[in-house]
Amino acid sequence: MQKDFHYYATYCAAYLAGYSHEESLAICYSAQFVDLCSATLLSKLKAPRSAATTQLQLEMMDARADKVGLQDITRIWASFHFLPYDLYAEREKCGKKYLDKYRLICKPNGDLVVETVNLAKDKSLQAAGVAMHVLADTWAHSYFAGTPSFAINNTNYHFYELIPDGFIERKIKFIHSTSAPDDFENSVYVNSLYQTSENTIMNLGHGRAGHLPDYSFMRYKYLPAWADYDEILKDNPKEYFSAFSQMVCALRYLRGDTDSFEKDTYDTEKVSPWESRIKEILIKRQGEAGACEDWKAFGEELSGCTIDDFDIDRYQDEYTAADPDAKDDTFLGKFILAALSQKSMVTNRIFKSGNKLAGYSIDYQKKGFRGNRDFLSLVGQRKGGGAE
Question: Residue 291: which H helix or E strand, with range?
Answer without folding.
Answer: helix 288-303
